[in-house]
Write a structure and sequence with these properties.
heterodimer; A: 1042 residues; alpha+beta; Rossmann fold; OB fold (Dihydrolipoamide Acetyltransferase, E2P); 37 strands; globular; B: 412 residues; Ribosomal Protein S5, domain 2; 6-stranded mixed beta sheet; 4-stranded antiparallel beta sheet; elongated; disordered N terminus
């Protein structure tokens, strides 16, 4: 029997056809062999400005628009061609090793380990990014891939994406028995060789006298370097390359810490993760559970994972069970056997307090759970096995795998305790700990040569890896933000921490603004297209009521009597959608920012100020475009009809809440405007009552505001709790009404794609804790069966001796609830649309399009619903769901950032006060004596809320003033005091008794219970040897019962 | 069965005159060895060209072309599928237990039936479709062919499965045993067999050889998950593993002298053998089949995985007789019965003729008249069959030769 095989090598086509074969596993479990054919070409340019060969036959742009004005090369028919301009410089920078200039060809690992380096402006220039590398990067890390793409898009660093796999000369066929990695390495070397030869040839052709740049491969793969050397291609490791650059100290710090090939050394502290397949099998079978890992803000050793299978989150106790998960990661957990179940901790455990004296350099002797940590945990177990209802053991779980790391860049500072004193001056590389600002993040080990410089600075760091043999995650410095407490650094830290986009608007965005700028005005001629379908409402007596000093006026109102005795009430909202067209750069930017972020003395706008504070803003005495909702309302606030229209309005006045109140109260004023405001006020009160009757909740959050106008006075005096005037409620009621009316109108038109806002009913178990506490301490019942009953029972939660008690309970109740969220109507069933807090069956955001992107989307949807515009681009549910997801995230972060900013401001104000007092009185303790309320009781401290400043803080044993103490505990004495104090915690009664060692007598001990009013001293202190070394912290000292 | 068989052979009715048939038969049945029309020796196969991996998108594929221009292409595609078990309740605890590697035995408690069906595979996992130009897919020929080839592919387990203890499962379980991933997952194999031209001769050997080659070249993505986990595969196709392991180069050099490297597990191959008189002829051409006394399809395969075992012999998987088309040919008329020759003879013999005639018509071809074609009546002697089997299976026999020849085709 003879067998013959056809020979393909003789085929003329075979040279430029290749294929790529791989296995694709689909989500549905299918496994497919995929074959992609590649047709190799020779016209892919090298993009070097030195090269004339490529330029003459590079592919021409499809759009035919010439972009090569910049290009200095003159080609005969340049006017016909519109070749994408070449990127790589003809005079690339040189280094010591490559004085003639060089182009860089990094491999995938170089990007994986040093993306921060490549992003550093000016550090890496003339980089040839290979398609092979880009694809490999995409498989390994999507975020890094996106960052690299962004880098390629920017011009100044000259990154060129070379499609080496498609070019005949540089395409590499995988050899039999060759691993993918080896093949890719070979591809990189092939490119380097080709570039060199190609440029040589180009220079011969072009009789150029310029030096040919060296083509340098950057790889950390030793084998690759060796082979490259054999093939006479210059190759360097990233480390070696960077060491040859200027400013190398700073750059070297940015290299990813996780070195590949670092053999497993020492002990493995953490259990290995399950294999991906095991995790998938387990999750599908329901024996493993997936959820987001969260760390308790009070105890860094206690994490929890909410999984869909159970109502209550699973506890993850201790580092071992946490198994290298960082708060925010999506993890897979396995429930532990019942004998390991524990109750949540009743103790405050701070990472820095427990692990203060660890040495980052020495790792061989450390255990995952240090002895001290172990002890802290054991004590809890003891308590857990105790008695009371709250202390029932909860199911615990252990992390067995990580589905997605949600690591971001963290702001932190170097723990000075971890820097060795010897090297503080030297430039030697050393390993130090960085304590992130976010307490839920463990400390991060970084290697730096600039430890001395970084001390006392706020720095931005990235986590690179957390290996099994390392107790803490490893990371590297990205950059320094500046000195502690310098305002710039702190504010930037805050914005970075909450991922607020604070860079100025890029030019593409500003290009979308009307060309008239501030001179833009409503066209006088009604025939102008701007007037099309717009109703002229300039005759209505419209006014706006806002906080004082408000510049971005979103809304204005009017009311006028109708002949039939009813009223016409109009709510007019800035017509932002007129200026921000869907899909343009400004729209994309706004959708990304999601919301305007208000900090104490800074506003980070969602839209460029030209729009926000001028063209859109419904300023008084100027004609403006608006989107109006007009109702006919009876005097009993029954809605007869609602109408929506784009309009042109002329606001008569812009009031502050106070001014409006004064005007309404001033009985001498009887002009139409005042009258209409009175009508509005009256109607709003009826509306409010109706809403309350329907079960709307009066919620409370510790809101204070800071007025920064008065520069002379004590800054503390600027801190005010928000005063509520009737006019606040006036505006609020009509905005709610507008939002609800618009929501149902849009929902009628787009039942699948309406952007709505809902507030899910909180599951009753959320209130369990608070409910038991109230029952126990005040004999009050919390009825959570419906929002109405909850509202009623909250109303009953009063304490005649303690007027703030009710607010305190409301604050706590609010925390038990889920947060409201944007969603796309198709994502939930209609009964789920309900807004629990507002007791409305449907709700959306319509009234603040200047500062919220959601409102802008709703504007567009409403415009489409009333036939003003087409529904283009609003109909894709998946896109809307993405928008919703981002908006929810941005809103939450904006809130956090705002609160953090206030906290910072209060701290600074307290500090200023302390310093001023110090000048007068010498040393001592300088704080403000205030009233506080016990919010939570722990085994070794209490949490006190100070309404005056809207802050809450942990009070540890050493911060109590005991009866008999005459001097307030000073900062210096804390350590010593901490050892002398003893406490007794009653988990059933929520009490904590504190006494000095050996003096447990009732008369010399202090007893505190939940909800109690206490006298506190609030001051700002400099922390020492803790997380915030050299950083200020608001310290609260309990002086005694109030 | 009868109409099927008839149809399958009817399609093959040769259009030869009785004289031609007789000539062919006589030369094939010569007592001192056949003389084949194309001059081949009785065990010699027709030359063929073969190649594998011709369909890049398939898991395995092959093409074989005979010198007469008939060609066949076989493409094989594998899909992951969940095994439906009587009780599909896998406790993950079990999974852990199995991870301890001490899985062998111990848990027979949970139903031997479930286990055996999951570990030995089910014949429905192999799906075969045959397309022959000019035939509908429910015509007798393709149906019969596919059943015959499938039988040897999936049926081998029943004969070969000796012990089902954990250690040896999969090795003796035949093709379907190879498709088991774990107790809950398996591969489903689709064999698409395509004859490119209308069949000139009975296409079974061509299709069988091509299928064999395609199976040899079939690769399945490499499994990354372990044991009872939901399967997860390596996305590197180069890492994919052969369904039938290939001889490793290292093994070749080491074992090269002692035993040929092909002594590995091989998919079955079905050979067509005819007998003419006492002669046995392999790989018959169309003309040869037309006059065969009997036509047999003999399937052989090798299922022993231990390369060192010298008893790694070929195994007979099945024998099927195929209705010989010669049965339906027109008989030749001997001179003695021919009217034209009869007329020339004297009337004195009329009585004899008259007495002979009824018997000859009743008997059809009662006696052989040399040089006059008689349609074959089928049937084959026991000793002849055992000789055939011996020729196929013996060391250095035709079976080995065929396997070796197929092995020589470079698999990619």
């Amino acid at each position: 029997m003879k067998s013959l095989r056809r020979d393909f090598s003789s085929s003329p086509q075979s040279a430029n056809v290749s294929s790529k074969v791989f296995v694709r596993s689909t989500k549905s479990g299918k496994v497919q062999k995929i074959v992609r054919e590649l047709y190799l070409r020779q016209d892919i340019p090298c993009s070097s400005k030195l090269c004339s060969i490529c330029y003459s036959h590079a592919p021409v742009d499809a759009d035919g628009v010439g972009k090569d004005a910049k290009n200095t090369l003159v080609v005969n028919n340049a006017d016909l061609q519109s070749v994408v301009p070449f990127i790589l410089s003809d005079r690339p920078a040189g280094t010591k090793a490559f004085p003639g200039g060089h182009y860089i060809v990094p491999d995938t690992n170089a990007f994986l380990n040093g993306m921060d380096l490549f992003e550093q402006p000016g550090a890496f220039r003339d980089v040839i990014v290979l398609q092979t590398v880009l694809e490999e990067l995409k498989n390994q890390s999507l975020p890094l891939y996106n960052r690299l793409l962004a880098l390629i898009k920017t011009d100044e660093n000259r990154f060129y994406l070379f499609f080496n796999e498609f070019r005949l000369e540089t395409h590499v066929r995988r050899r039999p028995e060759e691993t993918i990695n080896d093949r890719n390495d070979r591809a990189i070397r092939t490119v380097a060789k080709w570039y060199r030869e190609h440029l040589h040839q180009a220079s011969r052709n072009g009789k150029m006298e310029k030096a040919i740049p060296a083509i340098v491969i950057i790889t950390d793969d030793k084998e690759n370097i060796r082979k490259a050397r054999e093939e006479n291609v210059p190759a360097l490791s990233l480390l070696d390359y960077v060491a040859g650059l200027e400013d190398s100290d700073k750059l070297l710090d940015m290299i990813n810490e996780s070195k590949e090939g670092k053999g497993q050394r020492g002990e493995l502290f953490y259990p290995e993760y399950y294999s991906m397949s095991k995790i998938l099998t387990g999750v599908r079978a329901g024996t493993l559970h997936q959820g987001t890992f969260n760390i308790s803000p009070y105890n860094y050793l206690e994490g929890s994972v909410s999984v869909s299978a159970f109502d209550k989150p699973l506890l993850v106790l201790g580092r071992n069970n946490g198994n290298r998960a960082i708060s925010g990661d999506i993890v897979v957990v396995e429930v532990l056997p019942k004998d390991q179940w524990k109750s949540p901790s009743s103790k405050i455990v701070d990472e820095e307090a427990v692990t203060r004296n660890e040495n980052p350099e020495v790792e061989d002797h450390e255990a995952v759970v240090t002895e001290r940590e172990q002890k802290a945990l054991q004590e809890e177990v003891k308590k857990a096995h105790g008695k009371n209802a709250e202390g029932k053991p909860h199911p615990t779980a252990t992390v067995v795998g990580i589905v997605k790391r949600n690591w971001r860049q963290y702001v932190g500072h170097v723990d000075p305790a971890s820097t060795s004193s010897l090297t503080k001056t030297g430039r030697r590389q050393q390993t130090v700990f960085v304590l992130p600002m976010d307490k839920k993040i463990p400390k991060i080990r970084i290697t730096t040569r600039r430890a001395a410089d970084l001390l006392g600075q706020r720095i931005l760091i990235t986590v690179d890896a957390w290996e099994r043999d390392s107790r803490y995650p490893a990371g590297h410095v990205v950059r320094s933000l500046g000195e502690f407490e310098s305002k710039g650094a702190e504010i930037e830290a805050l914005l970075l921490e909450y991922n607020v986009q604070y860079k100025p608007f890029p030019k593409v965005v500003l290009d979308c603004l009307p060309s008239e700028g501030h001179n833009w005005a409503v066209p006088a001629n009604k025939q102008d297209p701007g007037w099309k379908d717009r109703r002229d409402l300039r005759d209505r007596l419209i006014c706006s009521i806002d906080p004082p000093g408000c510049q971005d006026i979103d809304d204005a109102l009017h009311a006028r009597p109708l002949p039939n005795g009813n009223f016409e009430v109009g709510v007019h909202i800035a017509d932002v959608s007129h200026f921000v067209r869907p899909g343009n750069a400004m729209d994309t930017e706004a959708s990304m920012r999601g919301t305007t972020v208000y900090l104490v003395d800074k506003r980070i706008d969602m839209l460029p100020p030209l729009l926000g504070t001028d063209l859109c803003s419904l300023k008084p005495h100027v004609e403006r475009y608006a989107f109006s909702t007009i109702w006919e309302i009876t005097p009993n606030a029954e809605i007869i009809s609602a109408d929506f229209t784009k309009s042109v309005i002329l606001s008569r006045e812009a009031f502050s809440y106070e001014q409006a109140q004064l005007r309404i109260d001033d009985s001498t004023k009887t002009d139409d405007l005042t009258q209409s405001m009175r009508t509005l006020l009256h109607l709003s009160k009826v509306l409010h009552q109706k809403r309350m009757d329907a079960g709307a909740l009066n919620l409370a959050s510790p809101e204070i505001k800071i007025e920064t106008e008065s520069e002379l006075s004590d800054p503390l005096m600027d801190v005010k709790t928000k005063a509520l005037l009737a006019t606040n409620s006036l505006v609020e009621e009509f905005m709610l009404l507008a939002n609800i009316t618009v929501a149902s109108k849009v929902y009628d038109s787009f039942p699948q794609t309406t952007l709505l806002r809902r507030h899910a009913s909180p599951p009753p178990q959320n209130f369990e804790g608070l409910s038991t506490q109230l029952q126990k301490k005040r004999d009050l019942k919390l009825d959570v069966s419906s929002s109405k009953s909850l509202a009623d029972s909250l109303d009953r939660c009063t304490d005649p001796k303690n007027p703030f008690f009710n607010t305190l309970i409301r604050i706590l109740a609010t925390r038990c609830m889920t947060s409201a969220e944007y969603f796309c109507a198709g994502a939930h069933a209609e009964p789920e649309f309900r807004h629990y807090g507002l007791a409305s069956p449907i709700y959306t955001h319509f009234t603040s399009p200047i500062r919220r992107y959601a409102d802008l989307v709703v504007h567009r949807q409403l415009a489409a619903a009333i036939g003003f515009s087409t529904a283009d681009g609003l109909s894709r549910r998946s896109k809307l769901e993405d928008i919703c997801k981002n908006l929810n995230y941005r809103h939450r972060n904006a809130q956090f950032a705002g609160r953090a900013s206030i906290e910072y401001y209060v701290g600074q104000a307290l500090k200023a006060r302390g310093e001023r007092l110090a000048k007068h009185d010498g040393d001592g303790n300088f704080g403000v004596d205030e009233e506080g309320y016990v919010m939570r009781v722990f085994e070794n401290g209490i949490v006190v809320f100070v309404p005056r400043f809207g802050i809450e803080g942990i009070v540890r044993l050493e911060d109590f003033m005991l009866p008999g103490d005459t001097v307030r505990p000073t900062t210096d004495a804390r350590k010593e005091l901490a050892l002398r104090r003893d406490s007794d915690f009653d988990a059933e009664e929520y009490t904590l008794r504190v006494w000095e060692n050996g003096h447990p007598e009732p008369e010399s001990s202090a007893m505190f219970e939940l909800f109690e009013r206490v006298r506190v001293n609030v001051s700002s202190v400099k922390e020492e040897s803790v997380r915030a070394v050299g950083k200020r912290r608001v310290r609260i000292i309990v002086l005694g019962k109030a | 069965m009868a109409p099927v068989l008839q149809a399958s052979s009817a399609s093959q009715i040769p259009h030869f005159s009785p004289a031609e048939l007789s000539y062919l038969y006589t030369s094939l049945a010569l007592p001192d060895g056949s003389i084949r029309p194309d001059g081949r020796s009785p065990t010699q196969f027709r030359p063929l060209t073969a190649e594998t991996g011709i369909l890049p998108g398939a898991s395995g594929s092959a093409r074989i072309g005979f010198a007469d221009g008939t060609q066949a292409i076989v493409g094989i595609k594998a899909e992951v599928e969940k095994t439906v078990l009587p009780s599909d309740t896998l406790d993950l605890r079990q999974l852990h237990l199995q991870d301890q590697a001490n899985y062998a035995g111990g848990d027979d408690a949970d139903g031997g039936r479930e286990r055996s069906s999951a570990t030995t595979g089910q014949s429905s996992w192999v799906q075969m479709s045959i397309e022959i130009p000019g035939f509908r897919d429910d015509d007798a020929l393709p149906v019969f062919l596919s059943e015959m080839m499938r039988e040897s592919l999936v049926g081998s387990a029943a004969t070969a499965t000796g012990g089902t203890d954990g250690e040896s499962r999969g090795k003796f379980a035949g093709l379907k045993g190879r498709l088991v991933i774990n107790r809950r997952w398996h591969w489903r194999l689709y064999l698409d067999i395509l004859l490119l031209s209308p069949p000139l001769s009975y296409p079974l050997p061509l299709l069988s050889l091509t299928t064999h080659l395609a199976l040899l070249s079939t690769r399945l993505p490499k499994l990354k998950s372990k044991k009872e986990e939901d399967p997860l595969f390596d996305d590197d196709w180069n890492a994919a593993e052969y369904l039938y392991p290939r001889p490793s180069p290292a093994y070749d050099s080491r074992m090269g002298r002692e035993g040929p490297s092909h002594q590995l597990v091989r998919p079955p191959v079905t050979l067509l053998i005819i007998s003419a008189g006492d002669n046995i002829i392999f790989d018959p051409s169309r003309e040869e089949i037309a006059v065969a006394d009997s036509v047999l399809a003999v399937s052989i395969g090798r299922e022993d995985e231990d390369p060192k075992a010298n008893n790694a012999k070929l195994k007979l998987l099945s024998i099927r007789t195929i209705d010989p088309p010669s049965r339906l040919t027109q008989p030749g008329v001997p001179d003695s019965e021919n009217a034209t020759t009869l007329a020339a003879s004297t009337s004195t013999t009329a009585d004899e003729v008259g007495s002979q005639n009824p018997s000859s018509t009743a008997m059809g071809s009662g006696e052989e008249v040399p040089g006059v074609w008689r349609p074959r009546r089928g049937g084959v002697k026991r000793s002849l069959i055992s000789r055939m089997v011996k020729m196929v299976l013996e060391k250095g026999g035709v079976g080995e030769e065929v396997m070796e020849g197929l092995e020589g085709v470079e698999v990619c």
